[in-house]
Design a protein that fits this description.
With about 220 residues, this protein is an alpha/beta fold. It has one domain: Peptidase C15, pyroglutamyl peptidase I-like (Aminopeptidase, 3-Layer(aba) Sandwich). The protein has a 6-stranded mixed beta sheet, sandwiched between helices. Strands 6-9 form a two-stranded antiparallel sheet. A two-stranded antiparallel sheet has the order 7-8. Helix 1 crosses helix 6, helix 2 packs across helix 4 and helix 3 crosses helix 6. It is globular and about 40 Å long. Belongs to the peptidase C15 family. It is found in: Cytoplasm. This is Pyrrolidone-carboxylate peptidase. Homotetramer.
Length: about 220
């Protein structure tokens, strides 16, 4: 069984992207009989989905997890829902800034993750890693990728039972040093968190039922 993990290239004048730094460390890792493949995704609307399609076509993964940077967050945050809108606060790495356009014209307004996101949060916390369910993946390339992934799985799965979703991670300390007061997480901790998340996704078919909601 193949597992596809993706991370993004740096964007918004950053020298690195923690999502790729963490994901590439897991290339070739075996977990419960599954082999992890890491792919670096351009932070560009449209191109990101073409790269995703190519990776899925080549690897035929049963599990796909996209990882992205969420500067300002202090926890590992599995995302609950992807929405069908691109609305760039900034330009992507190709200089494009779509505003209020669908990710996929004619597709549903949203898709839910098919990962066991609450079990992931439970297991991450049990492992001593701060984690919480997130109810918004934003409207930039991370959400664009997440929605495109879930639309692909819903309409063109490589096999019955293919699952996917998205996880946001904090800045690395060297990034947060440029933004006084910004939270961060060490790379080794993020890598450990992704190992737990993958293991949980492979082991848990039906998510746990416990609170993960927010007031705002």
């Amino acid at each position: 069984m193949n597992v596809l993990l993706t991370g993004f290239e740096p964007f918004d004048k950053e020298a690195l992207n923690p999502s790729w730094e963490a994901v590439r460390a897991l290339e070739g890792w075996r977990c419960d009989g599954a082999l992890v493949h890491a792919r670096r995704i351009p932070c560009v609307f449209g191109v990101a989905l073409r790269e995703l399609d190519a990776a899925i076509d080549a690897l035929q993964p049963r599990l796909v997890i996209g990882i992205g940077q969420a500067g300002g967050r202090s926890e590992i945050t599995p995302e609950r829902v992807a929405i069908n809108v691109d609305d760039g606060r900034i330009c992507d790495n190709a200089g494009c800034q779509p505003i209020d356009v669908p990710v996929v014209a004619g597709a549903p307004a949203a898709y839910f993750s098919t990962l066991p996101i609450k079990a992931m949060v439970r297991d991450l916390r049990a492992g001593g890693i701060p984690a919480a369910v997130s109810n918004s993946a934003g409207t930039f390339v991370c959400n664009h990728f997440f929605f495109g992934l879930m639309h692909r799985i819903a309409t063109r799965p490589v096999a019955a039972g293919q699952r996917g979703g998205f996880i946001h991670i904090p800045y690395l300390p060297e990034q947060a040093a440029r933004f006084p007061g910004a939270p961060s997480m060490a790379l080794d901790t993020v890598i450990a968190a992704l190992r737990i998340a993958v293991a949980t996704a492979l082991a848990v078919r039906e998510d746990v039922r416990e609170t993960g909601g927010q007031l705002s």
